[in-house]
TrEMBL record:
The gene is nagB_2. Keywords: Carbohydrate metabolism, Hydrolase. It comes from the Bacteria. The active site is at D78, N147, H149, E154. It comes from Crateriforma conspicua. It catalyses: alpha-D-glucosamine 6-phosphate + H2O = beta-D-fructose 6-phosphate + NH4(+). This is Glucosamine-6-phosphate deaminase.
Length: 256
């Protein structure tokens, strides 16, 4: 018998894995199954350290000949303002390094919001339009910030927000400074899909690992739906699942 207390959240909404590898394989399997049944699937992708093992597994399975990504379309959640796609810390560069360069997705099928633009309002509108004309996002991957942000929708982001220019929270700048030479180099603004953009995806999978995410996960899954915790809006989605490890599940209410 397993004596570990189980979170009192139903299995459709949250799955707790023993380790990151198992969780990542589970998520990669879901993507591969979708692309197997719908080769032209539209995938929403995320950056950050959390999804890296998923991308590694997708690459491994692609090299093994188990999946063909040549017809998929991808949309990324966000990009730093001021960083061109060539900048090594841009999310566009992250995606090339961790996934796109290693699989057969055509470059023109991949979309990362532009971090350099004359007019971010029309850039954001164009991004939304491209998602719509592609048929909408079938499957969206998400990470979560320690403060509950999804994409770069920081606390305070309204549920009806679309793709837009946003200011980064101090704690996000601090958390992401590990990727830059100095905290002063971290951009202060970003362009991000909005909460409403994200909620339009047919399926949402949010991954969270480690104790630093535990409070944000508990607030998102078991707290009130509020802009104070942007990930809590996932409670309004009929097909959203949190994939977490034990440490990230530790602050959830448990079954008696
Ligand atoms: N904009 C991204 C998010 O999409 C990501 O989910 C989050 C967590 O990152 P990590 O996975 O490295 O903890 O922070 C970043 O700032």
């Amino acid at each position: 018998m397993n004596s570990t207390p189980r979170p009192s959240i139903d299995a459709k909404r949250m799955v707790v894995f023993d380790d990151v590898q198992q969780a990542s394989h589970h998520v990669a399997d879901e993507i591969i199954q979708l692309v197997g049944t719908k080769p032209s699937a539209v995938l929403g992708l995320a950056t950050g350290s959390t999804p890296i093992a998923v991308y590694e597994e997708l690459i491994r399975r692609y090299r093994a000949g188990e999946v063909d990504f040549s017809k998929i379309t991808t949309f990324n959640l966000d990009e730093y303002v001021g960083l061109s796609p060539e900048h090594p810390q841009s999310f566009a560069a992250f995606m090339r390094t961790h996934l796109f360069d290693a699989i057969d997705v055509p470059e023109h099928h991949t979309h990362v919001p532009a971090g350099v633009a004359n007019d971010f309002l029309s850039t954001a509108e164009l991004f939304e339009k491209k998602i719509q004309t592609s048929g909408g996002i079938d499957w969206q991957l998400l990470g979560i910030g320690d403060n509950g942000h999804i994409g770069f929708n920081e606390p305070g982001s309204p549920g009806d927000s679309g793709t837009r220019l946003v200011e980064l929270a101090d704690e996000t700048i601090e958390a992401n400074s590990r990727f830059f030479d100095s905290p002063d180099d971290v951009p202060r603004q970003a362009i991000t899909m909005g909460i409403a953009t994200i909620l339009k995806a047919k399926r949402l999978v949010l991954m969270a690992f480690g104790a630093a995410k535990a409070q944000a996960v508990a607030d998102a899954v078991a707290g009130p739906v509020t802009p104070d915790c942007p990930a809590s809006f996932l409670q309004r989605h009929p097909n959203a699942t949190f994939i977490v490890d034990r440490a990230a599940a530790a602050a959830l209410p448990t079954e008696a």
